[in-house]
């Protein structure tokens, strides 16, 4: 598989960064986890981190053949409708991106429709939707590899354009089903702990979704990351995993949104463990599988706001916090300078 190499972060500089933070004009540790975040951003940058003023949200969109079984409360046509909403600038992610000064682009990873060209639409379609993972592999191995490679290339292109940080979001009706199966197999965790209500199932819908996913899981005993990705999809998840690998290969941090983007991160980390250090997990979704996934990766996200929308909204809400952490290293005076009048 032809993916860019990712260098591990050199943690040798952590002590010097913590000492620099400790010397700032504040009590020791007074900014808590913001100081931890600042240290990690410094380690990723290999020195003072950038301001992250140029931020890009990439919303990856794809459809899921398994949705024909009824794993979502909504029809697959909603994916295309929401893509049109993003392109019109009227989705929640658009509003949040404007609020925090981030650009937004939509990536057609596998929408089950032919989309007209648009200035902020990236055509990376591998195929029109994944296959029905309840009865057959969602993707071929070649399709999974192609999606990973295209995601990596999209991330690296954005970085070459000058974006200092990438936020990832998704749109794909039925994708919590794929995320649950990926988490079940790659965390690993019991399937029942990974299945949630998604975009709005009632109790009967949740029971139906669980039964369908049990059938899908029983169909394949795959445990190797690429094979698991191919078995359970989807294309937007695969392409996000590739984007994380691509960004990490360029030493650029990635803001990871909720459950589905975290499932993509799980795939990326299982494929390339070094990717984990470059991922900033932004919020804890109320989708129950997210907590099992985060526990498996030993992670505690920045925010807990009871979000479950997706689209990258949680990543965008965390962006100001990340920018503040970076400026803690660059913009705050040392206590020594304060006491000696060197401001």
Share in helix: 40-55%
Q: What radius of gyration results from the CA coordinates?
A: 20 Å
Task: Give the assembly state of these chains.
Answer: single chain
Main sheet: strands, sense, barrel: 6 strands, parallel
- Strand order in the sheet with the most strands: 3-2-1-4-5-6
Note down, in words, how this protein is organized.
The chain has 343 residues and is α/β, with parallel strands linked by helices. It is built from 14 helices and 6 strands. It has helices spanning 14-22, 32-45, 77-87, 92-100, 141-160, 175-186, 191-194, 203-219, 225-232, 235-249, 259-271, 288-296, 313-331, 335-339; strands spanning 55-62, 103-110, 121-123, 165-171, 254-256, 279-281. It has a 6-stranded parallel β-sheet, sandwiched between helices. Helix 11 (259-271) links the parallel strand 5 (254-256) and strand 6. Helix 2 packs across helix 13, helix 10 (235-249) crosses helix 11 and helix 11 (259-271) runs parallel beside helix 12 (288-296). The longest helix is centred in the middle third of the chain and has 20 residues, at 141-160. The termini are far apart. The model has no long low-confidence stretch (mean pLDDT 96).
